[in-house]
Amino acid sequence: MPAPPGYSRQELMVIEAARHVRDGDVVFVGTGLPLLAATLAQRTHAPNVVCVIESGVIAPRVRPTPVSVSDPKVMYRAVRLGTLREVLGCLLQRGLVDLGFLGGAQIDRYGNINSTVIHSPGGMKRLPGSGGGNDMASHCRRLLVITRHERRRFPERCDYITSPGFLDGPGARERAGLSGDFGITVVTDLAVLENDPETCALRIAQLMPGITVDAVRAQTGFAPGVAPGVREVAPPAPEVLGVLRDEVDPDRVYLREDESVSAARR
Amino acid sequence: MQPRTTPRQAEKVMTAAEAVSRFVRPGSTVGMGGQNIGRCPVALAHEIIRQRIGELTVVGCNLSISMDQLVGAGLVRRTICGSGNLERFGTTFCWRRAIEDGTLEVEDYSHLAMVTRFLAGEMGVPFMPTRSLLGSDLLRAAEKVAPAGGLGGTAGRTAPPTTPHPDRPVVIDNPWNPGEPVVLVPALRPDVSIVHVQRADAVGNVVIEGFATHEPEMMRASRHVVVSCEELVPNDEIRAHPEQTTVPFVHVSAVVVQPFGAYPTSTYRYYDYDPVHVAAYQAAARGGAGAVREYLRAHVWQCARFDDYLQRAAGRERLEALRRAMQEMV
Fold this sequence. Notes:
The complex is a heterodimer.
Chain A: H1 9-19, E1 26-28, H2 33-43, E2 50-53, E3 57-58, E4 80-81, H3 84-93, E5 99-102, E6 106-107, E7 113-114, E8 117-120, E9 123-126, H4 133-139, E10 142-146, H5 172-176, E11 183-187, E12 191-195, E13 202-207, H6 213-218, E14 225-232, H7 238-248
Parallel strand pairs in A: 1-2, 1-5, 5-10, 10-11, 13-14
Antiparallel strand pairs in A: 2-3, 3-4, 6-7, 8-9, 11-12, 12-13
Helix pairs in contact in A: 1-2, 2-7
Chain B: H1 16-23, E1 29-32, H2 42-51, E2 56-59, E3 62-63, H3 65-72, E4 76-81, E5 83-84, H4 93-101, E6 105-108, H5 111-123, E7 127-130, H6 137-144, E8 170-173, E9 181-186, E10 192-200, E11 206-207, H7 215-221, E12 224-232, H8 235-240, E13 254-257, H9 275-287, H10 289-301, H11 306-313, H12 316-327
Parallel strand pairs in B: 1-2, 1-10, 2-4, 3-5, 4-6, 10-12, 12-13
Antiparallel strand pairs in B: 7-9, 8-9, 10-11
């Protein structure tokens, strides 16, 4: 095991997610860890990132730490506070958004996401629903999901497809009428998964420090493949960690998990 | 043309009690303004609860605390929306419980698809296309009810049937590009929308500041709009800055002057949300039917007016602190 590195697994998840934001990207983002990642990217390697928030907020300089897409902190110094139609229609459906951050209760082998309903022998559990999630998955070129890695969250097939990933596999998006120019990255506390360009199925692209492929598979409801050249997620640069802690979420509204990456897992 | 009892340019300022009793009827389809913890029409929803007007269909994009309180009061039969939740503060617990118990019908859409339905409504056309929903189960739920030979899993290569479900989307081929599936969503025209805004004048010209979510489309699509406002402004002020009018008086039926009318949610440029009281409601909502009724008894039914609730739930000092918190940000 490596020496205690002085950062939590959750911090590394946010930092790794931020690495997938490219400078100049138009990024559609909600609150929580995604907004931390987008804001961190904006304050470090991607100063020209354009954040779009679905309540109608365009290009804000987010103040720490908003708890909602309607929180005034998410609107700070925006260039436009408009309408849902402007951002979901005129930017997202119009094809002007590069990257969307999405969450959900389940994500399956083909990157389909469920945020609507879970069925179990004990009955159904109702979830909040699509929100702008279906719109993001339908119209973004790239999707980024940050989630805890638990077996129940990664089923073979979602109980309900709220937001389309690759649906049934190669060609399915095009058959449904969606753009096939699409990619998905999932950052978890165990690994970074991405879609296999051939099969469209999620596969292991990177491993969190100290985590093995077997450990990931043990917590996944399907058997993910392994990308060639799979490697360990790079540790955070100290200055990036500093920005995350001091500027992005100084009150630790979302960064609450204390578990160090060197600590034994559960 | 709908029947009108008052000219559109008449003064429309009235109490919440009068506005709600005149324009919200049992069985109404109610368009809900606000989003999450921002500018929810809390005062107007309280008045509906106070008058116990039931069998409502509540529609919107994100439905949050006001919808949840109406459901908790047992007044909602059905919701049509894109989501129900309060983000960091958790889900809408009464709504979730009612769906899981089978006492509430729900029609699921994405947020863009809901806005598109209002857009059709406000434009006076029967439906509007979107490319959202394709491939997802939000659409498959629609296809299940389609008559045989209608909208199929073959991406709708046949013509739509004559009578799809009135509240569900259908898929057609793009007439200009056969083979390209397109979703059509039906126009949605609420009987009445309730929206809390920053400013309005006496005849109902409305100024929304900051983010406006789905409200402009929904308001213009509605048969009646009841707004509550932070400030009543002179008509001259509206006419001095007409480009700032979000929705003109033509669409608005009633104006209720109610400062802090969105409390405990925020109103941009006026006051921040109150996390303590949002959490207090959420604790009651999570606690079950009994706890919710106790909350509503204390905060709605035992309060003759919304100002009594403000006094009980927050108090002057707290409200002023929320004002300062917002002023510090904008």
